[in-house]
């Protein structure tokens, strides 16, 4: 009943408004009458349209009502006709919903041998097998292309393996990929150094040390260059501790000391990391390594006891051996 009343009220006031508007001579009073009549018609029509709207379009109320009113008010008659057509189409001719919730895909036949599988279906282990045992240089080249998309710790050893390939194309692509990784890290170091020079912050010094550590940890740097990077990592970690010491810095500094064959200092920093709030399980592998390097096998065995027990994990295998 209310919908019908609103519709008739809209029709009546809009008709009155246009009757006034179509008068040959419009006075100021007639303009006021037209605007008033049109405003009442728009208000009635806005309320009618808002009632007909689906629930999800009714909120927020202010936005939806304001849009409907302004659209109809600023476009006399045309706005109402457009709104009516939109509502009729949306309510009575809705878009069809597909009942099919799955999409048919081409069936992938099972391969007769591992060499028949596309390299995109492989993980790091299978890509390594392709590099080592596949006789097709094109397949090995595709494997190197796939390796470039792996995480850096997985990609770098495989790319270094590809450097020994007999195919020039494979070696060149592997070398270019390693150069790209190294360039990205060096660019990050330059950026962080510039930021650190502008404002000495512990977080920036730590980022620089992490980048130097990554060059060594990934195995990109070797020999004297690796030694230099480790010294730089130690330098910036020491700066970090001077600015704001924290457990993460002590942990990384301990790992750097282990790589520099300085186990006694590593134990000191790793212990500080544990005292700073790190769980013993996070620090135990490095403390065990440091204790082993110093010849303290009882302490090494103690920390090995905190290694995880998941089957197949390298740390769990060490734990099983020492048990």
| SSE arrangement, N to C | HHHHHHHHHHHHHHHH
Number of helices: 16
End-to-end gap: 85 Å
* CATH homology group of the largest domain: Tetratricopeptide repeat domain
Organism: Photobacterium sanguinicancri
Transmembrane segments: 33-53, 65-93
InterPro entries: ARM-like, ARM-type_fold, TPR-like_helical_dom_sf
Keywords: Membrane, Transmembrane, Transmembrane helix
Which structural traits does this protein have?
323 residues, mainly alpha, Serine Threonine Protein Phosphatase 5, Tetratricopeptide repeat, 2 domains, 16 helices, 0% strand, elongated, ARM-like, TPR-like_helical_dom_sf, transmembrane
Q: What does the model show?
A:
- By secondary structure, the protein is mainly alpha-helical.
- It has helices spanning 2-21, 28-52, 55-58, 61-74, 78-92, 124-133, 137-147, 152-162, 168-198, 202-217, 223-244, 247-259, 263-275, 280-293, 297-304, 314-322.
- The termini are far apart.
- Keywords: Membrane, Transmembrane, Transmembrane helix.
- The chain crosses the membrane at residues 33-53, 65-93.
- This is HEAT repeat domain-containing protein.
How does the SSE layout of this entry go?
Layout lengths: L1 H20 L6 H25 L2 H4 L2 H14 L3 H15 L31 H10 L3 H11 L4 H11 L5 H31 L3 H16 L5 H22 L2 H13 L3 H13 L4 H14 L3 H8 L9 H9 L1
Helix pairs in contact: 1-2, 2-4, 2-5, 4-5, 6-7, 6-8, 7-9, 8-9, 9-10, 10-11, 11-12, 12-13, 12-14, 13-14, 14-15
């Amino acid at each position: 009943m209310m919908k019908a009343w609103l519709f008739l009220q809209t029709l009546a006031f809009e008709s009155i408004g246009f009757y006034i508007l179509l008068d040959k001579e419009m006075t100021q009073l007639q303009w006021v009458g037209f605007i008033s009549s049109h405003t009442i018609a728009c208000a009635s029509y806005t309320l009618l349209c808002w009632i007909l709207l689906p629930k999800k379009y009714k909120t927020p109320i202010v936005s939806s009502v304001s849009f409907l009113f302004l659209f109809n008010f600023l476009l006399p008659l045309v706005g109402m006709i457009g709104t009516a057509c939109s509502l009729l189409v949306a309510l009575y001719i809705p878009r069809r919903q597909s009942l099919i919730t799955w999409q048919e895909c081409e069936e992938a036949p099972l391969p007769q041998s591992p060499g028949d599988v596309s390299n995109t279906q492989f993980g790091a282990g299978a890509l390594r097998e392709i590099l080592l045992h596949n006789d097709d240089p094109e397949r090995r080249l595709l494997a190197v292309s796939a390796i470039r998309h792996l995480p850096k710790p997985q990609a770098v050893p495989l790319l270094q393996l590809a450097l020994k390939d007999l195919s020039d194309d494979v070696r060149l692509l592997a070398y270019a990929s390693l150069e790209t990784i190294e360039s990205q890290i060096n660019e990050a170091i330059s950026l962080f150094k510039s930021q650190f020079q502008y404002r000495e912050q512990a977080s920036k010094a730590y980022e620089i040390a992490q980048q130097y550590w990554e060059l060594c940890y990934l195995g990109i740097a070797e020999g004297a260059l690796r030694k230099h990077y480790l010294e730089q990592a130690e330098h910036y970690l020491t700066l970090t501790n001077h600015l704001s010491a924290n457990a993460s810095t002590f942990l990384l500094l301990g790992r750097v000391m282990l790589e520099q064959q300085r186990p006694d200092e590593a134990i000191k920093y790793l212990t500080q990391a544990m005292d700073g709030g790190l769980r013993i399980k996070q620090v135990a592998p490095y403390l065990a390594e440091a204790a082993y390097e110093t010849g303290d096998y009882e302490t090494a065995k103690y920390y090995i006891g905190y290694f995880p027990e998941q089957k197949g994990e390298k740390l769990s295998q060490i734990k099983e051996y020492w048990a």
